[in-house]
Write a structure and sequence with these properties.
By secondary structure, the protein is mainly alpha-helical. Helix content is 86%, strand content 0%.
């Protein structure tokens, strides 16, 4: 049947050909172009966005509680 070593050799040769081909340069240039385009945008990672959203939720809850407390204190004062 097939010799696993033979398949490994062919795979290695194909990888070598792809590494030295213009397609590899094209991929490298496309990645650089995309990275440069994304760098110009004001993007954040999803994890950072989720952290900030959670902080905003907690801050909103605290603000609501403080507003209720201020209303309560104002009502007592009258």
């Amino acid at each position: 049947m097939f010799n696993p070593k033979f398949l490994d050799e062919i795979s290695a040769k194909l990888n070598d050909v792809m590494a030295s081909s213009p397609a590899k340069d094209l991929e490298k240039n496309a990645r650089a172009l995309l990275a440069q385009g994304f760098a110009k945008l004001d993007l954040v990672a999803r994890e950072e966005f989720d952290i900030q959203a959670a902080m905003l939720d907690r801050t909103r809850e605290k603000l609501t509680a403080l507003e209720a407390r201020v209303s309560e204190l104002e009502a007592q004062r009258k």
